[in-house]
Design goal:
It is built from five helices and five strands. A five-stranded antiparallel beta sheet has the order 3-2-1-4-5, covered by helices on one side. By secondary structure, the chain is an alpha+beta fold. The longest helix is centred in the first third of the chain and has 31 residues. Helix 2 runs antiparallel to helix 3 and helix 2 packs across helix 4. The termini are far apart.
Length: about 210
């Protein structure tokens, strides 16, 4: 008599722990790159707003763009997505840096009444003419401000303005006509859009990477 129970093959599911573990690691790695790249790019843009921080910020931006090209383009073999992520990652610091400067100064800075003493233009090392203005606040502190601090030739000599002083005392103050703490409606959405597109592109490439 054949023992059916003994001779019948047993169908047991194969363990999928290794596959699931690899899939989780790939997802976590992808999420890590999708977050780190735009965050570091944004912080590098903010770094360029500090005195003597321009070249350091530029170097960091170039490193971030190179890392994006290597990871997304070379490792994950998504050249088209890598091009998009590099382009938005390069543009992100240009918009996010000044936007963070404004947010930092106006939301956390101390406002002070000031008067415009003088306005004019100066020529930088590239021969470009840039607007500058000199203001003095009620404490008697004098500031030489430029376009980074929102001096774009819109102020007239003798005009009363408001300066928002950096809470850490490292950045030059932000100057504007009123004490309104609202942030510009154009730069913030653009910065947020570039941030999301960069992160989403990397996330897409990582989830659909090619061998």
């Amino acid at each position: 008599m054949n023992d059916t129970a003994a001779t019948s093959p047993t169908h047991q599911p194969h363990p999928a722990d290794g596959s699931n573990s690899a899939r989780r690691r790939r997802t976590l790695t992808t999420l890590g790159w999708a977050v780190v790249i735009p965050v570091v790019g944004t912080l590098a843009g903010f770094l360029t707003q500090y005195p003597y921080g321009l070249w350091v910020g530029v170097i960091v931006v170039l490193i971030v763009v190179a890392a994006t090209a290597i990871v997304v383009g070379s490792s994950w073999h998504r050249a088209g997505v890598a091009t998009l992520a590099c382009a938005t990652g390069l543009a992100l610091p240009l918009f996010a840096g000044p936007t963070l400067y404004e947010v930092w100064a106006k939301k956390l800075g101390t406002p002070a009444d000031a008067v415009v003493l003088d306005t004019g233009q100066e020529v930088n090392g590239k021969g470009t003419e840039l607007d500058v203005c000199t203001v003095i606040d009620t404490s008697g502190t004098r500031y030489e401000l430029g376009e980074r601090q929102n001096c774009h030739g819109q102020f007239k000599q003798g005009r009363h303005v408001t300066v928002f002083k950096d809470p850490l005392g490292l950045l030059d103050p932000w100057v504007q006509e009123t004490d309104d703490r609202g942030v510009g409606t154009v730069s913030l959405p653009i910065s947020a859009g570039l941030f999301l597109v960069t992160g989403a592109s990397i996330l897409y490439a990582g989830q659909r990477r090619r061998p």
